[in-house]
Amino acid sequence: MSLHEPHVVSICQGQRATPTAYGCQGRVSIDRQCVIITHTEYARNIADAETLPDAIGSWSQVFGQPPPEVAGDRGVHHPEADRARLGTSGLSHLSISRTGKTPYPDADTAWFKRLQRLRAHSQSVLSHLRADPRMARCRYKGFAGDQMNVSWAVLAWNTKTWGRLLHQRRLVGQGAHRRAA
Predict the structure, then answer these.
(1) What distance lies between CA 150 and its chain's CA centroid?
(2) Of the candidates 48, 88, 47, which has an alpha carbon nearest to the alpha carbon of residue 69?
(3) How far is the C-alpha of 112 from the C-alpha of 117, rounded, in Å?
(4) Looking at the chain, which runs of residues are DSSP E strands?
(5) Beta bridge pairs of residue 28
(6) Virtual torsion, Cα 103, 108, 110, 115, nearest 10 deg
(7) Confidence (pTM)
(8) Residue-wise pLDDT tens digits, 53-91
(9) Are the beta carbons of 28 and 123 closer than 8 angstroms?
(10) How far apart are the C-alpha atoms of 84 and 81, rounded to whole Å?
């Protein structure tokens, strides 16, 4: 607990080098092109499994329909929860690894493995968010400052990603133009 930031909580990361972190916990929703669609910050330490309904609800609010596929790590898996309680009953594919020795029934299917690769790719997006726009170090005060810090980092990431996607589209368009001439 911090004297000048009372909302800061201890977050158990489960890593050997840094077992705990101090700050606010957040969640981001990323599409296939690595564009961050939604983000939410929590003023308390919340289990990852409890953030899944919020993530699906935020995605549905933006697009008007739930996401077609959802991938998550083992922290999102909730052994006692059914799909209806998690808010995932309308999804065609749900790729969340289970904890323990019993694997997910669809763990050997192509779509499950593809979604797990996309989930692993999203980890690099989070790493870049912490490092590139300096999201790991918040210079603003209070929980509203933490939310503002994440919003600025997401804006910087999405601007960079959209620029990259437009550049790739332009290069593909120029290649088609040169072949036609």
Answers:
(1) 12
(2) 88
(3) 9
(4) 9-12, 20-23, 25-30, 36-42, 69-72, 93-96
(5) 39
(6) 20
(7) 0.74
(8) 888 888 889 988 888 888 887 767 665 554 555 556 667
(9) no
(10) 8
